[in-house]
Amino acid sequence: MKYKNIREEKLKNKENSPSQRGLGGVNFPSQRLNGNYFSGEETPPNPLKEGETPPNPLKEGEFTPAYLQSHNIPTENLIFSKNFLPYNPKLKENSKALRKQGILSEVILWKELRADSFNGYSFYRQKPILNYIVDFYCKELSLVIEIDGFSHESDKAIQYDKERDRQMAVLGLRVLRVLDNEVKKNLQSVLSRIADFTPPSPL
């Protein structure tokens, strides 16, 4: 199922889109709140007030070591360029291996996102960003998608993911987390939530 019509409808209602509600304030089912997943009308705490601009005014390629260090992000292993987000080149081989390995839920979602097939947006799979490898990344949407399995439910994993999401937010990226089992059993719901995202408004 394609979502071109959905995209057009969402653009008409942009004020209600996730990009207008700020980082971390997306009211979607299966978002994690204090280490747990919830559904229905519950809303996770939003670090930004309604209508407030995300803290990062920079564009891809404009980040500097000093800027990241001021946000407590280590930079000694990162490559900086005007053409892409900072990343650790040592992760490239791991990224390739993860793409070849491909857990089932990632393969299922990738079939919907690859080759600009989802609303014409370009998604990358197992993309190194900073010192992490994210499951999926879309530059146009400033969006990272993570598929969480049981390994993400421990206290240590929750804290790790929290810090990871914080660092993505410093880059101006929004993070959508979905359950592994949800991708397998309710893919259309996952795709609908991705379709809710629209490109951030230019500053």
Give the name of the CATH architecture of one domain: 3-Layer(aba) Sandwich
Based on CA atoms alone, the radius of gyration comes out at 16 Å
Q: For the record, what CATH class of one domain applies?
A: Alpha Beta
User: Helix content range of the residues, please?
Assistant: 25-40%
CATH superfamily placement of one domain = VSR Endonuclease
Question: What does the overall shape look like?
Answer: globular
Largest sheet: 4 strands, mixed
User: How many DSSP helices?
Assistant: 8
Determine the structural class based on helices, strands and strand pairing: alpha+beta
Would you give the CATH topology of one domain?
Endonuclease, Chain A
Query: Could you tell me the number of beta strands?
Result: 8
Distance between the termini: 33 Å
How much of the polypeptide forms β-strand, as a percent range? 15-25%
Q: For the largest sheet, list the strands in their spatial order.
A: 5-6-7-8
Q: What integer is the average pLDDT?
A: 78
Order of helices and strands: HHEEHEEHHEEEHEHH
Task: Give the uncertain stretches in residue-range form.
Answer: 1-54
